[in-house]
Write the structure tokens for this entry.
Amino acid sequence: MTAAAHPRPSAVAQAVAIAGRSVKGVLRQPPQWVPSLVFPLFFNAVSAAAFDRTRALPGFPEVNSFLTFLLPATILQGVLLGATAAGNDAAVDIENGFFDRLVLSPMSRVSLLGGRLVGSMALGVVQVVFFLAVLSVFGARLENPVAGILVLVVVGALLAGAVGAFSVSIALRTGSVEAVNGFFPIFFAALFMSSAFFPPSLSGGWFETVASVNPITWIVDGLREVIIEGWVPGAAAKAVAVSLALGILAIFMATRSLAARIRT
Amino acid sequence: MTEPILAEGLVRKFGDLVAVDGIDLCVAQGEVFGFLGPNGAGKSTTVRMLTTLLSPSAGTARVAGYDVVTQAAEVRRVIGVALQDAAIDPIMTGRELLKLQAVLHGIPRRISRERGDELLSRVGLSAAADRRVGTYSGGMRRRLDLALALIHEPRVLFLDEPTTGLDPTSRMALWEEVRRLNGEFGTTVLLTTQYLEEADQLAGRIAIIDGGRIVRQGEPEALKDAVGSPTLRVDVDPDHLTRAAEVLQKFGEIRPARSGRLAIGLEGGAARLAEVVRALDAAGVVLNHMELDAPSLDDVFAEATGRRLEGAEEPPAPVEVGG
Ligand SMILES: Nc1ncnc2c1ncn2[C@@H]1O[C@H](COP(=O)(O)OP(=O)(O)OP(=O)(O)O)[C@@H](O)[C@H]1O
Ligand SMILES: [Mg+2]
């Protein structure tokens, strides 16, 4: 075994292997993905039934069904629920020592982080497709299906990456599953403090103020415009750009957290 | 040729606690080096520094000629590591983990499949290879961990307490595997252990570590020879302890012993046993148990630290009559 080491491993192959393991890990633990598909649907079926009449209020967007209005909220909810699995898995790895094994391999830091995020994004895309399929059966409609699906998938993937990176960052900082799960309500509060479930302009007051500075509102409004109006480049760009910015910020945080954990 | 493991003045602090307090180490090519010490001695901390997982607070270390701080990536390519707590993912199967490990090390698929199968059979996990690791027993996890450490044929192998928690059969099998790797491939091995016998049997050279410092270093035989006289251990009636001690110290210096027991370095060896028994009898001491052992690594440890390593975590044994 004194022979020369193997050729330098490829960072892409490493990232693909890590992504594959993330996806497999999530799929093998149904509690990690079943709620992220079922809960948003259930929640939105209830809201649609309860609030359908609010569509008649002046100032409410013109939609064929409350489900169409809720489509962005459903997708964001699913992605929030699903992508925290990445942080959860990272924390479990740290707790059971597997993270040490990964760090001990000659793996580039980019693959270590990137692989996980690619895994999250892949699951995010699956969620978007699932929600679109189910809600369209129940009457949700895209004005321009091609543009709508494209924008929803891209934003879904970006947000899954962003939430994944943010939750992985918490995992790397704390090494604790509890801490990762403890952050979850914050994501959810942010979703409720946005235009996702109700037009803020109809409620007014502090809610309108908070929602107007919440980046999730910007994403939801952009998506909703594309869903209702069809291909609106400005709206699509807004949703994608805000998601991308959140993703870059989260990846920056995760990279810093990784460096801090490895150099101890 | 550079030394596989070379450390100078290695220190690691955790806050105020000095876990490793200035360790110098030089392990030669093809050596099996044993790191022997009690709980909290600093064995794992040293291993984690040598394997790039922890950065030293002071001092330097080179593994396979690479600096563990500035050339950590190079170090990781040539070392194999099995940490004290088996580092595995319970959701995956044994074979999947081996495959992942092979990809991370850049081993071509054709080679990795063959080598993976061979390793699985060598550590006795062929039948369990496609089961999730979460269903493995503690011993099976350790053996898988060893296989993971070997998939890339490392030049230098670090094993942190590889046999803690293994049954005697698995322990022997692991010793065989270490000997084979060392004998056939000349793999340099650094292993830590709390077991005297393991250090004695497996390691060509050992370092005894206590309180973060190396207190003795050398070949086991040489260290034991340096102790000199064999150890006589005596169990007596608790009421007679002081009287027995008075008698015994005429035959050699008192050595550390477990509570309720006495030990001396018997000068003159076995030839004087009868004399000791007569003297104790004359003093009216009731003997429960008596044993004479050639110098062991435990005696080396006791001489260096004033404490016993053997049975350190066990409660004192009940007094038995005869022997
Ligand atoms: N991450 C850490 N933070 C704080 N203290 C630590 C940390 N790791 C180790 N220590 C302390 O450093 C000392 C040495 O620990 P180490 O794990 O190196 O001992 P060891 O010889 O491996 O013991 P054992 O036989 O129990 O595995 C102990 O007092 C331990 O509590
Ligand atoms: Mg240890």
